[in-house]
Amino acid sequence: MSSTKLRAAQEEQDDDTEVDMSPMIDMVFLLLIFFIVNATLIIVEMDKKVQVPIARYSEKQNDKMGRIVVNVYSDEHAGEGRFRMADGKKVFADDEDMMDFIKKEKERWDGNGQKPRLHLRADGKVHFTYVRRVIRAAAAAGINEVIFVSLWSRNN
Amino acid sequence: MARHRRVTNLEEDKPKLSIAPLIDVCFLLLIYFLVTTTIKQKERDNSMALPSAAPSEAQPDIQPFFIKISNEGHIYANVGAAQELLDTEAQGAERTLPRLDQRLEIYAAAAKAGNNKPLVQVYVEAEAEQQVVSDVLNHLAKHDVTTVTFTDLVVQDDQHE
Fold first, then answer.
1. What is the mean pLDDT of residues B111-115?
2. Are residues A74 and A128 in the same domain?
3. pLDDT for position B63
4. What's the rounded Cα separation, in Å, for the pair A119 and A44?
5. Dihedral sign, CA of A57, A59, A60, A65?
6. pLDDT means per 10 residues in chain A (156 residues)?
């Protein structure tokens, strides 16, 4: 009699050892969402209308902090604005406007304890005169380190 | 009796989460994203310090190397009477400028021997393309020249738009 009781108890125990997967899945999704949300914060946006030049000796983008992005468009896409912000939508009205933006960003990065740098995404076909205007605006805002963005090669 | 049995059966039917369809869907999504993803090339940095933006009082100990880029994309060394045509266009997929490369190598070696930081001044004409400027900067990066002055930053030469 006691042995059947024991067997019944053992069977019951076997039933209990099943792992419940649903909380684990919940946790995995939670972690996934957490990392997705965090990761998007430090991505440097790239507008694909700007075809940056090729440079073989350029370096990997290691530190994404402190970058003040300015896009310079070629004649083909300059219709809506030659100089635009990282998202490619907000257009700088004039050089003064650009300088103000760079100054504000510089103060923001300085406040965060990061070294502000100009992340210059100029199209390969753009005339240097426009690039120079951005460099000049950055200089006026007090930034002397310029990152000329490039690609290692172009795969068409 | 029969009614009692039905009740116990209901109690035993605990709702269980079936994992198999979830895994199916996950794999399906994974395959979909694998197929539709095009690998975007990562953009790279060519970082330069532009001392003209933050002028210093101290005179550099070394004579700077002067490069001129014309509207046509020709690369020259030096100015005035000493001006010398180096390269007319970048060569190959790697966009090399062989003569500029050679000159920079000599200059960088000389600077290193004298324990100086190599200094390069670049004068770019208004209509030169950014790709050509990038080619020159690329060669500077190759020889570890990270201090560049765009000499025309002070001159208001680009009022025509």
1. 88
2. yes
3. 82
4. 9
5. negative
6. 62 66 90 82 75 91 87 88 85 90 93 91 92 91 91 77
Number of other CB atoms surrounding residue B102 within 10 Å? 11
| Amino acid present at A66 | G
Same domain, A78 and A141: yes
Give the tens place of pLDDT for each residue, B52-81. 655 555 666 778 889 999 999 999 998 777
pTM of the predicted model as reported, rounded to 2 decimal places: 0.73
Residue A103 shares a structural domain with residue A32? no
Claim to verify: residue A32 and residue A97 sit in the same structural domain: no
Q: Which of B25, B26, B29, B45 is the best substitution to test chain A (most A C-beta atoms within 10 A)?
A: B45
β-pair partners for A38: none
Residues of A in contact with B51 (CB under 8 A): 144
Domain range for A98 is 67-148
Does residue A53 sit within a domain? no
For residue B135, list chain A residues with Cβ-Cβ distance below 8 A.
53, 55
CATH of the domain at A100: 3.30.420
Looking at domain B51-153, its CATH architecture is 2-Layer Sandwich (3.30)
pLDDT grade for B8, boundaries at 50, 70 and 90: low
Tokens of A119: 């992340």
Between strands B120-124 and B148-150, the pairing is parallel
